[in-house]
Amino acid sequence: MVLLAIFYEFINFNSMLIFLNDSLVPEDQAKVSILDRGFLYGDGVFETLRAYSGAIFHCNDHVDRLFHSAEAISLRIPFTRDYLMEALYKTLEANHLKDAYLRLSVTRGVSEPGLDIEGCLSPTVTIIAKGFSSYPEGLHQSGIHAAVVNTRRIPASALNPAVKSLNFLNNIMARVEAKRLNAAEAVMLNMEGYVAEGTVSNIFMVKGGLVKTPPLSAGILNGVTRSIVIDLLKENGIPIIEQAFYPAELYTADECFVTSTLYEVMPMTTINGNAVGSGKPGKLTQTILNLFRRLTA
Questions:
Q1: Are 100 and 111 in contact (CB under 8 A)?
Q2: Catalytic residue flag (residue 164)
Q3: The pTM is what?
Q4: Pick the catalytic residue: 130, 164, 207, 283?
């Protein structure tokens, strides 16, 4: 399948071009029905990707996870993996971007209001690409503030944590709570009180040279960046263990950091207003960030 040609006489080069189903259209023409289930119910899946110097970082992994998420909710994506990867690059190039973030979303499509999915035969696929070089370098040098919030992570028995769903209300409310506590990120616990994950990130802590991160069984999303960082730690002989732990361990950690597509490896230097370790990004965190950036370079 070949992407539809873009006719230049219809393009406003001041407008972002958005991939919608099988074509690239100007932002003001990218319309989705009011009856789309993504709007009505958050019924769909998505991925956030990063492009560095025109190359989409671990594109295969993100697209594979999109298909796994879709399969888990009985959503059939109407395009192949190769086609979606081509579409991601076409959207990046059409917007003349080299360093960017991309948002790939698939909804179950248009249907009459109601929860039954029978008859939803035409999923809606969108790709947005926007310029994004990184967070200010000063943020990686100072770290972010976090807060352990009361909003608990949805248990795996209610919703498979491997599904990166468009219904992000659980994470949104945790972020609202964190903002009220003057924190940039929330530390969400699972129903058993163990540390789970951030609203958009996975969590790591360092104690005595050992790196610890919650296991997937804690009810967390298996982040692409999380997996990369775990591999980097193992390849460089840095002890890493996936083990459940309570938030009290964060308060006594030497270092803490979070990982995500956009955060990369971000130091977490205060939690609930209390300094983590020295209150500055630790040496091990900086080492991991440097190793990660060698890959993105």
A1: no
A2: yes
A3: 0.91
A4: 164
